[in-house]
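ENTRY TYPE: paired fold submission
RECORD: A
CONTENT: sequence, then structure tokens
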Amino acid sequence: MANRSSTSPEITPSRSRCIVEHDTEKLSFELINYMQLKGMEVGKFVSSPVCRVGGYEWEIRFYPDGLNKEYTGNTSCFLCYLGKDQDVRAKFSLSMQETKGLQAQVASFGTLDYAFTTGLNEFGYPQFVTTSKLKSLARFGDGCFTIRCVLSVSKESPPLELHDDLERMLEEGLGADVTFGVGGREFDAHRYIMAARSPVFRAQFFGPMAEKDMRHVEVIDVEPTIFEMMLRYIYNDKLPSCNNEGGGYNAAI
């Protein structure tokens, strides 16, 4: 004969989470002979080849004569997001060094964190390096410079569909190893899942005073319909719609 026991359930709320991952790449954009780029006019830019990072397309934009007249005397440099349909958050840093010779560092900036949108798709430094500094370096070198960008794109993974899988097990009765008797009705369930969500069942199934191989539990002071909703909440972490019956369910929890 199967072991029997009686109890009144208590449920521990579950937790769900999203996992945020990052895809990081190093981009390089070589400027061949800066002196030939100088004089393109304010607001004109040259761009790097398009690079795909984190599932999105990006390019570096360099303005040899500055972004606009406000930044006359400076070059400007921006990271540009080329996506059309989705906003994306990224962290990136920009730097410049001489391409040949001593490969001296020309400029280096800290990491920026920015939420790119289709309307605000460029972010960076309108005062990147002064034109006088680059002309001076070009005069004593070959005038070639490399812009480097370390780009890290955030990718949010969707929550795991664990609750859907657990609810399917409940509905199909797959692997059920305990039966709950409630007001003349019986409900098949899984001891480990019930124990994980309820300290009462945890103690009853696996505590020091637990009966070995308990297969049947009589639940007292709970209506069958309320217990059925409570059982589904244990498996799928979803409350029923707010009505009289649902209100009684919430109170029972």
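RECORD: B
CONTENT: sequence, then structure tokens
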Amino acid sequence: MKNLIYFKLFPLRGKNPITKLGHPLLNKLGTTVQLRRAGQQMVRRKEKRNTNRISLNVISSVAADNMIAPLLCVTLDDRKYLIGNMGELMQLKFRNHPLNYGGKLLRSFMMPGSGRTYNPWSATAGLLGYVQSSEIDTVLDLHAPSRIASLIANSRNLTSGSSLKLNVIPFQNKLSEDHESFEFREKDFCTIQGEMSPSWSYLSFMTVPMHGTFNSEKAKLLGVPFGKANGLLCQGKSVLASDNKTWVRPEEVLGPTRPAQKFVIIGCSSPSALENLINYANTWEHELPSCIIHVLDKGVWGNEYAKFMKHPKLRNSTHLISCIELAKDSLIFRRNRSANVLPSCRGFLSTHLSSVHSLSENVFELEEGLSVEISDQKCFVKNENTENVGVKTHSFNELPSPSVGYVVDILGTSATSPTLYRSLSCYLVNVDNCFILLDCGEGSYSQLIRQYGTNLDSVLKQLRLIFISHMHADHWLGLVNILLAWNESTRGADTTLTVVCPKSLRFWVSRICDSTKLSHIVERIRFVNASTVHAGNEYSLSQSLSLYTVPSIHIYDSHSVILSHKSNGNLVYSSDTRPNMRLAKAGKNAAVLLHEATFEDDLHEEAVNRFHSTVSEALMVAKRMQAQKLILTHFSTRSIDTSFTAPNWSIYPKHKTIYARDGMRWTQSICQPNKNAHKS
């Protein structure tokens, strides 16, 4: 009995619902009626007609921590199309934006990519989380370059939960192996075409021309019978008048045809590609774009490009520019930004970090919150972002003093998915100027930028080891971008980076090397299976510092980790686990225990079913371990900072327990919110 809707009808006081519905089959109260989804006039949903009006909204734009092409949502009547790249934390941007960019209205997703710096992983890092967390209940078509198609194919089995609802359609090779193109058509609505080469790309979005407005009064005077004949005239067909002698032509009752609406996205990675772009613009004939979006690599924006924008076929268009030279660096985690700043000082925080640039009247910076309406071959730009622009700072958090013991920068404390308040699991430990990263969920690199600013380069140069506890996406999806950043900072240096992780992650990295520019980086990385680093076979980082893992009670190949320092004692990180007495024994007398507290105590049954811990269970582990300090972290998205349910403090002292927040810094024997953590 597929595709059936069941309605139970009940009498209403003073009204007859059957008469109200007006259907002869519904003749008895309380009757269960089966109504087929298709074919029933009384429940059939009318499809919207093409109004020939395009709405364009900017979901994400280029910034210091988001050096990839922007993501746009294009709306044509009741159809939505995503165009652009989906970087890390995109699911959070979707959730925060007032408009709905997913669900049943989403028709297709285009990923035009170009540029010598184009990295498929950076362009798709947020796609896995978005597809799984969205309400998409159908398979989504994704048109993408062949390297992205290969990357997604190799990543399908790495995410937890249901499989990716994606039908990947690779671009076609046109002139050579590195020159690809695609075309997507929706009858009676639009045509989307794209082309990609190593140094430039374009995508055009054009609607179908529409007939003019139907003049019902004139049709009546000409004797056009009411009903089906009106529709035929709107379709461009002649009809016979009521006298059965006179033919009425469409042009007699229709106004002027409304031309197609068009916008174009141009990508350019090198000033040398301008000649190709000029040749492309010369091919435009009748339908000139009302709006042109320019996605430029660093160093392209300048006088020569501005001159290109004055090309005879471009100068009357509205131009939106996406480039780092014009970008204003807005924050994703807006509420976290001022969480640890005194209320009287919050007015001094800059929401945007860059200076303002003067642009021509028809030229706008492409930034989040910008919306565009294209109709009647005119472009109307509206910017909903009214925040003031501040001055860019030159440094953020200072590096910890080498004389201090363990220093932990808490970068992400949310479980499963990011929230306005919290990013995903990530903790940076510094001891003896040796930096160790414990897990790196999606968005970890952005959090490092916010935490350290221009000092981040020094941090990356001293990064010695990354520990990945298990293969749930909220603990490892940020790894690749951190590896790319580390490689850039240590270019030319004779250093290696150790990654202690599950075996499957190592195999995945080797599979995606060719499509993500990781081939030359992998040679400098030493992968160590987490299961092989245990008590008695510790991994030594220096004469005084080593680490080893303890199997956690979670999923296959999941581990907790213990850092052991001769002078500073043990730092224990549980990651995701049920209460583990084996870990409590191994980390005896720890200087600090970072323990997950995914669920509050009233959700104990769910914690058991999902192999997580409650707050009181984390307190119990700290008690058994005799830990000197306990930091609770990895909170469910249902938990709100201001209303945590009080646990059983008789288990472990409250004054030794800290509820972690993003941006907090803990130093051995001292715990204080990092005063500079949100000056960004």
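NOTES ON RECORD B: The longest helix spans residues 479-489. The chain has four domains: 4-36, 54-209+259-383, 216-253, 407-665.
STATUS: closed
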